[in-house]
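Convert to structure. Protein one:
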Amino acid sequence: MSSSWFESVAVAQRRAQRRLPKSVYGALLGGSEKGLSMNDNAASFDELGFAPHVAGLANERSMATTVMGQSISMPVILSPTGVQMVHPDGEVAVARAAANRGLAMGLSSFASRSIEDVCAVSDQVLFQLYWAGGRDALLQRLDRAKRAGAKGIILTLDWSFANGRDWGSPWIPERLDWRAIAKYLPEALARPGWLWSYVKSGHLPTLLTPNVAPPGEPAPTFFEAYFEWMQSPLPSWHDLAWLRSQWEGPFMVKGVSRVDDAKRIVDTGASALSVSNHGGNNLDGTPAPLRALPFIVDAVGDEIEVLLDGGVRRGGDVVKAVALGARAVMIGRAYLWGLGAAGQTGVENVLDVLRGGIDSALLGLGRASIGELDRTDVVAPSDFFRRLGG
């Protein structure tokens, strides 16, 4: 096995930390305020145990499933993440890796690569929207996503109320002008491998967000796009139903914690929802999605596909979420660490690590497929779960 291979997501994280400038790496870690939710996301998985069998185990095991009409090789989707400065190929490298492993990828509105570039290398792209810029702007983005070949829409609603981004967040410039370059240059020189990858690519890191630009206009910077979003009136439930009606294909609402919200999302006609607190970047103190998952599954799981997003670091984590009722999980930081460590190969490495962990857990639990998993496969402390909302 190649010496560049890493055996766990934790090793990918350490290698990314060694390779990336301090501020770039720090941007992958930052949570809101004190980081309570971000830390609970990962810690919650460690509180759950397994109940394995010792005989009658399945010699062959299947991980394949479908999510939002997409056939995927295991219950994992790559979550949309903004401005991927960890590698010059950014979202294109991630899309290639996902396609090579038979998985769907979410592409952020705030991505550094265009939806056209990403859809050119993957036919399983789910385009992510924020409620930003008004209905005309949203319709333009939906039309562009359709023309580019996106297979579904992810509407993210769980990041609009986190103003304090203190926990580990680095300084991010509004644009890469000479002042910003001078500030960041010592960090870049201290990580020559990362710097050289950009030199070889022929372009410098960018803070532009091409997927929110109106037709024929230049791409805004991340902060210009962010400002538009934060200045937009917040959507009503009627607005959500309207937006869903404008897209004929699969449609996910991401960022659900409460049972009552989940029921109202079903009423909008959405085809999927993700139990999520935006990786710990929304209202700090929101419990880990894993703690709320079973209650939402019990309330709406027969009417809508329920996914989980937040804290997944191992294949066993995927199995725990599926056993509690998730159709699949979405991963963000895990694949970004792989991208930062080794580009496309690193993302594929992370996905292979997760696949191996899922297979090991299925073997130990005596399950022939992920569809056979249920709550008897996990062991939880009596005070583990949290029901939010009536």
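Protein two, convert as well:
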Amino acid sequence: MLQLYETRVSSRLLLGTARYPSPAVLAEAVRASRTEIVTVSLRRESGAERSGQAFWSLVRDLGVRVLPNTAGCHSVKEAVTTAHMAREVFGTPWIKLEVIGEDDTLQPDVFGLTEAARILAAEGFEVFPYTTEDLVVAERLLAAGCRVLMPWGAPIGSGRGLNNVFGLRTLRAHFPGVPLIIDAGVGVPSHAAQALELGCDAVLINTAVAQAGNPVAMAAAFAQAVEAGRAAWEAGAIEPRDFAAPSTPVIGTAFRR
């Protein structure tokens, strides 16, 4: 089981809900993924006009927990305002906090992120910060009140996988008790399996599923990959070696003088 704040879930796969070919495909992909948490983006007009109710109803009917996000926010004020709207609309203290600092890579503004996290945590939000693998930033986010970290694997939607395996290993080693959810850049199921093999606790997938040729089949593949990766981590993988190590014992075998 994975504990996120006071909530325990069985699935270690979180699924985004954007860019699917249709609502029906989204619903089938969520079911195939066996996820228990989906992320949703809240636009400003939704808070005032209650638009998009058909979409929100579809998500609720799937029986999954909603993790609203502040996607597209570029400032502390914008992110905090969006979080307040999300809490009102969805009735949850959870918020996936994004404060974007660079438009080409969509890299987080870690300075704005930590400030927004401090404000929201003080107001009772349970913050899931989209961050980098930087150890100092992680320390600041935890000090601000976050109890989950969501480091990126690669730029959002890039499908490049885990660009800094060393950094993620280091993050895992420094914060062994903090849930780590890889957010962004995962492109294929093997990337997800690798993240779990490194000791990360979960992955969040959107583009790799939504834009696949068959989103439903891809969602099912990611579900299997996450389970395999976690099982490998728990089993204890061997350490890489520079030289060969014979798998067949040589003691007692015939040899020539």
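Strands lie at 2-4, 7-9, 13-16, 37-41, 65-69, 94-97, 126-131, 150-151, 181-183, 202-205. The radius of gyration is 20 Å.
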